[in-house]
Write a structure and sequence with these properties.
Length: 100
């Protein structure tokens, strides 16, 4: 499944590959963050949100990463927030989001 995701801090796609139990996140135009902050992807399943991956863009603002589909393959939405590296809850602003 290929879904487009977009927001203030980038655009891209999330490709779900259930046969391999992974998703591939491809983003462009992702803004750099100050030291100590990361982008964090959350899978939204009903009222529950699950942290899936932390990442930073490369020098050209691109992200290409595989994310294991452990316990979030049924998510209907993903959000990417800007978080303090050590944060455990989704407290930061939503930078990118999309429907799955």
């Amino acid at each position: 499944t290929l879904k487009n995701i977009q927001g203030q801090s980038g655009v891209g796609s999330l490709v779900m590959v259930p046969q391999k139990s992974l998703a591939v996140l491809v983003l462009q135009k992702v803004k750099p963050l100050p030291p100590g902050q990361v982008y964090r992807m959350w899978a939204i399943m009903g009222d529950e949100e699950m942290s899936c991956a932390d990442f930073l863009p490369d020098a050209q603002g691109k992200v290409l990463m595989q994310i294991p589909l452990n316990r979030w393959e049924t998510a209907k939405k993903v959000t990417i927030t800007i978080e303090q590296k050590e944060a455990k809850e989704a407290a930061g602003e939503i930078a990118i989001e999309g429907e799955i």
